[in-house]
Amino acid sequence: MSILTKALSPALTRRGLLAAATVTAATAAFAPVAQASTQEAVDVAKLPRVKQVMVAPPFLPEHEQVAKDGPKVIEVTLTIEEKKMVIDDEGTELWALTFGGSVPGPMIVAHEGDYVEVTLQNLPSNIMEHNIDFHSATGALGGGALTHVLPGEQVVLRWKATKPGVFVYHCAPEGIMIPYHVVHGMNGAVMVLPRDGLKDAKGKPFAYDRAYFIGEQDFYVPRDEQGNFKKYDVAGENMSDALDVMRTLTPTHVVFNGAKGALTGDNALKAKAGETVLFIHAQANRDTRPHLIGGHGDNVWEGGSFNDVPATNLETWFIRGGSAGAMAYTFQQPGIYAYVNHNLIEAVMLGATAHVVVEGEWNDDLMMQVAKPGPIAAQG
Prior knowledge:
Layout: H1 3-7, H2 10-15, H3 25-30, H4 38-45, E1 49-51, E2 73-86, E3 93-99, E4 108-111, E5 115-122, E6 133-134, E7 154-160, E8 165-170, H5 177-182, E9 187-193, E10 198-199, E11 205-206, E12 210-219, H6 239-246, E13 253-256, E14 269-272, E15 276-283, E16 290-293, E17 297-301, E18 311-314, E19 323-330, E20 335-341, H7 344-350, E21 353-359
Parallel strand pairs: 1-2, 2-5, 4-9, 12-15, 14-21
Antiparallel strand pairs: 2-3, 5-7, 6-8, 8-9, 10-11, 12-13, 15-19, 16-20, 17-18, 17-19, 20-21
């Protein structure tokens, strides 16, 4: 009996939802992909190597917007952690499946032509098999066929950044375990910048002062007979109950960066009037419609590709499920802006809201209160 079968509830075993071997049939079928040619290996070996330090969202790792030199190998370590998280202000608990301990997982940044070398580690304390599928990569199910790891194992995958844009990555073990892992938080994003940086709609060089990564997450938390959210002792114990909730296609929570309120209050995003902020928005499972209340999408790469000319002056934009997009806005007024999923039921009632606190001097020409609230004036 495997470590996974021993650790998880009998319900998981009966359903046959957990892969029994490290190397799946898909891995075997794609095994030749992992064997690089001698010439390719020599070429990559000559490239400079840079370790990219992962940071928790909404922040991005240190990076250059315009590449100063040729392609490089970017070394990244993603550590898989199964951990209990509180996802709202009512104490609702969830055993999250995470890359790097956060929901979403950390952003990876590269330039077109770079190689991204990922060391994927599955901690010995975990109980599930995991892998990773990069929508930014080419071949072998986005790397999913070559990265299956059991607890206590690690694997190294290298892929070439051939498409500039923003992309989702997520765990995709097999079968029903794919959506189960994704809706328990196991997703993140990659940004591949053009080597000469971004361009606006007129083809002119475009730079941002700040960048934030917003990962929208739908959770499906089971309830007990009294309607209270249930709690579980170990990761995976909720499998049978969670699958029943997932089949309704109705999430109990829709949140930004892992929890309701994760990007409000003391955790609100920061900016200054006059600054251009790039917002990268990813949703690994459901369609969403981001909107910045009080601002606009000056430049919007709605489909995520930086090869495409950005749309301009959008009030609300569309992010397809399983993808990421980017929007840039130059703030002109101070104050608190609400960045929301403009399905306002999900924004207000389920948690998909972030705040941006902007510093600066108020401009009455853009907006002013002409008269304070008072009695309705008599008509005459």
